[in-house]
Amino acid sequence: MLTALSPIERPRCVRCLTRMRLANVVLGADHAEKRIFECAKCGATETKFVADPLDSDELTRLTNNIRPPA
Length: 70
Fold this sequence. Notes:
Elements: E1 2-3, E2 21-27, E3 33-38, E4 45-50, H1 57-64
Parallel strand pairs: 1-4
Antiparallel strand pairs: 2-3, 3-4
Protein backbone atom coordinates (compact mmCIF):
# COMPACT_ATOMS: atom_id res chain seq x y z
CA MET A 1 0.00 0.00 0.00
CA LEU A 2 1.36 3.42 -0.94
CA THR A 3 1.02 6.22 1.58
CA ALA A 4 1.42 9.94 1.13
CA LEU A 5 4.27 11.16 3.30
CA SER A 6 5.66 14.64 3.09
CA PRO A 7 9.41 14.78 2.45
CA ILE A 8 10.09 15.53 6.13
CA GLU A 9 7.41 13.48 7.88
CA ARG A 10 8.84 11.05 10.41
CA PRO A 11 6.52 8.46 11.95
CA ARG A 12 6.49 7.70 15.66
CA CYS A 13 7.83 4.38 16.87
CA VAL A 14 5.04 1.91 17.68
CA ARG A 15 6.98 0.68 20.73
CA CYS A 16 8.18 3.84 22.47
CA LEU A 17 6.52 6.70 20.51
CA THR A 18 9.85 8.42 19.74
CA ARG A 19 10.17 10.08 16.32
CA MET A 20 11.96 7.68 13.99
CA ARG A 21 14.82 8.66 11.70
CA LEU A 22 15.03 7.88 8.00
CA ALA A 23 17.57 5.06 7.70
CA ASN A 24 17.34 4.15 3.99
CA VAL A 25 15.51 5.03 0.76
CA VAL A 26 15.21 2.61 -2.15
CA LEU A 27 13.77 3.74 -5.49
CA GLY A 28 11.39 1.24 -7.05
CA ALA A 29 10.78 0.50 -10.73
CA ASP A 30 7.57 2.59 -10.73
CA HIS A 31 9.46 5.56 -9.18
CA ALA A 32 7.85 4.89 -5.81
CA GLU A 33 10.14 5.07 -2.80
CA LYS A 34 10.59 2.44 -0.12
CA ARG A 35 11.51 4.40 3.04
CA ILE A 36 12.93 2.52 6.00
CA PHE A 37 12.71 4.31 9.35
CA GLU A 38 14.61 3.33 12.47
CA CYS A 39 14.04 4.28 16.10
CA ALA A 40 17.19 5.63 17.74
CA LYS A 41 15.86 4.79 21.20
CA CYS A 42 14.72 1.15 20.93
CA GLY A 43 15.97 0.07 17.48
CA ALA A 44 12.57 -0.79 15.99
CA THR A 45 12.20 -0.38 12.21
CA GLU A 46 9.25 0.51 10.00
CA THR A 47 8.93 0.47 6.21
CA LYS A 48 6.70 2.87 4.26
CA PHE A 49 6.06 2.87 0.51
CA VAL A 50 5.59 6.36 -0.91
CA ALA A 51 4.28 7.20 -4.38
CA ASP A 52 6.38 9.39 -6.67
CA PRO A 53 5.61 13.00 -5.60
CA LEU A 54 6.06 14.22 -9.19
CA ASP A 55 3.32 11.82 -10.32
CA SER A 56 0.74 12.91 -7.76
CA ASP A 57 -2.84 14.08 -8.27
CA GLU A 58 -2.00 17.41 -6.61
CA LEU A 59 0.76 18.17 -9.09
CA THR A 60 -1.47 17.22 -12.03
CA ARG A 61 -4.23 19.48 -10.70
CA LEU A 62 -1.82 22.40 -10.30
CA THR A 63 -0.26 22.04 -13.75
CA ASN A 64 -3.65 21.69 -15.45
CA ASN A 65 -4.86 24.97 -13.88
CA ILE A 66 -1.94 27.14 -15.01
CA ARG A 67 -3.13 29.88 -17.36
CA PRO A 68 -1.43 32.95 -18.80
CA PRO A 69 -2.13 36.24 -17.00
CA ALA A 70 -5.28 38.03 -18.13
